[in-house]
Amino acid sequence: MSSASTVADYMSRDLITLSPDMEINRAMNILLEKHISGAPVVDASGKLVGMLSKKDCLAAALAASYYRDWGKPVSEYMSTDVQTLESGMDIVAATSVFLDSSFRRFPVMENGRLVGQISRADALRAMSDNWG
C-alpha cells in the first residue's frame, strides 16, 4: 500500500451539517431523506460542536413518544465528545482507528476546521484501492 494515501484522499467533502439549535425532528428527517447514518453539528461560526447519529435520533423519538414533544433541539441529543481525524493522517492509521472504535464515521479536521467526514466504507475503499 502506498504510504502517500491520506484521509483527505478518501473523505467526503460534500457534507450535510446540522446546527445545535435545529429541532431534533427536522434533523432526523434530514438524516432519513439523505440516507446518512449521522452528521456533524456545527455552530454559527462553523465550529464543530457535536455529532448526531440515527441512534441519538432513536433516543429522541422514544422520548417524544413518551412525552409527546418533538420541540427539543439537536443540542439535547447530540454527542459532544467527538473524536476527529486529521486530513493528513495516513489512511492505514485511520483504518486502525476504525477497528478500535465503534464509530461508523469521523469528522475530518484541518487546521482546526471541519473539512470533511470519513466513513468505514471510505476506509474500506482505500484499502481495496491500495491492495496489491
Q: TL;DR?
A:
With 132 residues, the chain is of the alpha+beta class. It has five helices and five strands; from the N terminus they run ααββαβαββα.
Here the CATH topology equals CBS-domain
Structural class label: alpha+beta
**Assembly classification:** single chain
Largest sheet: 3 strands, mixed
How far is the N terminus from the C terminus? 7 Å
Can you put this structure into words, describing what you see?
This protein has helices spanning about 5-10, 25-35, 55-65, 90-100, 120-130; strands at about 40, 50-55, 85, 105-110, 115-120. About 35% of the residues lie in helices and about 20% in strands. Helix 2 (about 25-35) packs across helix 3 and helix 4 (about 90-100) crosses helix 5 (about 120-130). The model has no long low-confidence stretch (mean pLDDT about 90). The chain has about 130 residues and is of the alpha+beta class. Strand 4 and strand 5 (about 115-120) form a beta hairpin. The protein has a single domain (about 5-130), classed as CBS-domain (Roll), CATH 3.10.580. The radius of gyration is 16 Å and the shape is elongated. The relative contact order is 0.24.
